[in-house]
Design brief:
The protein is an alpha/beta fold and 545 residues long. Helix content is 47%, strand content 10%. The protein has helices at 5-8, 21-33, 50-62, 76-83, 100-110, 132-143, 163-166, 179-192, 199-209, 213-224, 232-238, 245-256, 259-271, 276-295, 307-317, 322-340, 345-357, 365-381, 445-455, 484-487, 493-505, 527-538, and strands spanning 39-44, 89-93, 120-125, 149-155, 170-174, 196-197, 229-230, 416-417, 440-441, 467-471, 474-478, 510-514. It has a 5-stranded parallel β-sheet, covered by helices on one side. A 5-stranded mixed β-sheet has the order 8-12-11-10-9. The protein has a two-stranded parallel ribbon with strand order 6-7. A hairpin with a 2-residue loop joins strand 10 (467-471) and strand 11 (474-478). Helix 14 packs antiparallel against helix 16 (322-340). The radius of gyration is 40 Å and the shape is elongated. The model is unreliable at 387-435 (pLDDT under 50).
């Protein structure tokens, strides 16, 4: 009968355990010195070697001829524990034996001495599944067991264990196995099994396993069933990584702001019996990959994919800012939580996609940061924000697309400065002359000033209290600042102002300044004149030189 690889190549001694030297060295030292604890707790994620080390330890304490702490694997006790003929080593699945009665039976059996072995060893797997009553029933026996009894508890969720249990055990934490160590083990197993496995493919399998040796060997077993030569493409097809173009389609729709395309793509997936919860999870992983690309220096070490897929991910990540990626991750996470609480799965995911395509629908700081970052990105690369076209002139005559610069005329209602400024308030046009272009209030002037805060802050104080009108393709500025007309031509101020107007409106308007009338001379404002008036009133004689 065929035996799967993870069972066939389960380590038989501590030296074969991969990636857990802090555990194996400590256990070996205790076995060599005869300092054997009465209760052990092995905790860590799946496939990291908890049950394997428990079985090796159970053989090591009962071995008739141990080799430097390791079981010999040849004596009667080692062979009996391996084939199950010695019943003094008992494995209990706490998921299905989690009641008080099960623990009471265990306590009664523990009082009997071993039949053949030196110790009666109880390996309780997934111990966190025990009920509260079962834990309480185990406490006294776990604290003071008979001398011939050893408990080995294994769990993936140590936080669910009561503190009274934790304090009675010697705890060992199993870490996720590094991908390089998993890949080396896969290469060794593939060599023994006559499987053609390249270094790159082995590393890809190791990253897919997410630190679990058992998962890595299972993946190798699946791939080996499809052919003797295992390539990255074969791994991608076997594990379902290939054929995920719909993730890129949905993300492209979000990048373009095309909610219709996103909803249509989701409808196609729904009609194809795609589970909405699974799709939301896959989208979360897709945006997580883009987040890693935008933040990590070597994202290929944190993302499991082929080089071609990594290049495609890089290209799509460039279409988003980091703030947008984080905002979409938050939206998808909340949508997934609502789906798991029983909400309408399709509707919930459609709402999330529409919000991803239309950030203005989102509330909250994350959405606001994403929208600001998108505006900053467009400004940085020279893409102006889209704006509504200015309102048409109320005059019946159609305005030309590009109007020639307006030259100052004595009959215009208000004159622009081409500096130097000319006399203000020219007379109204004669009835026989053609009507000049009329001014339209420029209601986005405050947005232009806000844009200048980022590009040329020194110009902003000069525009304080100013307003602006549109005349053809010109933005005419009305300001009480008498030096604005001169300073706007210096230090690139005019270029900065024109660029800010183009960023806000998307149009190539040119800025100019209205003439402002010179303030009338007020004699009372002259200190000397005031003093002379007071002297006259008082009848004081004086001489002006």
């Amino acid at each position: 009968m065929y035996q799967v690889l993870y069972r066939k190549w389960r380590p038989r001694r501590f030296a074969d355990v991969v990636g857990q030297p802090h555990v194996t060295k400590t256990l070996l030292n205790e076995l060599r010195g005869g300092h054997i604890a009465h209760a052990y707790l092995f905790t860590g994620s799946r496939g990291t070697g908890k049950t394997t080390c428990a079985k090796i330890l159970s053989k090591a304490v009962n071995c008739l001829s141990p080799v430097d702490g390791d079981p010999c694997g040849e004596c009667e006790n080692c062979r009996g524990i391996d084939d199950g003929s010695i019943l003094d080593v008992i494995e209990i699945d706490a998921a299905s034996n989690n009641g008080v009665d099960n623990i009471r039976d265990l306590r009664e059996e523990a009082n009997y001495t071993p039949a053949k072995a030196k110790y009666r060893v109880y390996i309780i797997d997934e111990v966190h599944m025990l009920s509260t009553g079962a834990f309480n029933a185990l406490l006294k026996t776990l604290e003071e067991p008979p001398e011939h009894v050893i408990f080995i508890l294994a769990t993936t969720e140590v936080h669910k264990l009561p503190a009274t249990i934790l304090s009675r055990c010697q705890r060992f934490d199993f870490h996720r196995i590094p991908p390089e160590e998993i890949a080396a083990r896969l290469q060794y197993v593939a060599g023994q099994e006559q499987i053609d496995l390249t270094d790159g493919t082995a590393l890809m399998l190791a990253r897919l396993a997410d630190g679990a040796m058992r998962d890595a060997l299972s993946l190798l077993d699946r791939c080996a069933g499809r052919g003797e030569q295992i390539t990255e493409q074969l791994v991608s097809e076997t594990t379902g990584m290939a054929g995920r173009d719909y993730l890129y389609t949905l993300s492209d729709a979000a990048a373009k702001g095309d909610s219709g395309a996103a909803v249509a793509a989701l409808d196609d997936l729904h009609n194809g019996s795609c589970d909405m919860s699974t799709l939301a999870t896959e989208l979360l992983g897709h945006y997580r990959n883009m987040m890693i690309i935008k933040t990590a220096k070597e994202p290929e070490k944190l993302i499991v994919c082929t080089q071609a897929e990594l290049n495609e991910l890089r290209a799509q990540a460039d279409r988003f800012t980091l703030e947008q990626v984080l905002c979409n991750l938050d939206l998808l996470q909340r949508s997934l939580e609502n789906i798991r609480r029983g909400a309408d799965r399709r509707t919930e995911l459609e709402m999330a996609l529409i919000r991803m395509c239309t950030p203005s629908l989102n509330a909250g700081i994350a959405s606001l940061e994403a929208r600001i970052s998108e505006l900053e990105r467009k400004i940085a690369i020279g893409i102006p924000a889209q704006a509504a076209q200015p309102a048409a002139s109320p005059t019946p005559a159609a305005q030309p697309a590009v109007e020639a610069p307006v030259k100052p005329q004595p009959d215009t209602p208000e004159e622009e400065v081409p500096p130097p400024p000319e006399a203000p308030n020219p007379p109204a046009p004669a009835p026989t002359q053609s009507a000049p272009a009329q001014d339209i209030p420029f209601d986005r002037w405050n947005e232009v000033i806000e844009s200048l805060m980022k590009t040329n802050p020194a110009l902003v104080p000069l525009l304080s209290g100013s307003t602006a009108n549109l005349r053809g393709m010109r933005v005419l500025i009305r300001s009480a600042n008498p030096v604005l007309a001169k300073l706007i031509k210096q230090n690139g101020y005019a270029a900065s102002l024109n660029e800010a107007i183009r960023t806000v409106t998307g149009q190539n308007y040119k800025a100019a300044v209205y003439n402002t009338p010179a303030p009338a001379q007020n004699p009372a404002a002259d200190p000397l004149t005031g003093l002379i008036g007071k002297l006259d009133e008082a009848g004081v004689s004086y001489t002006v030189e």
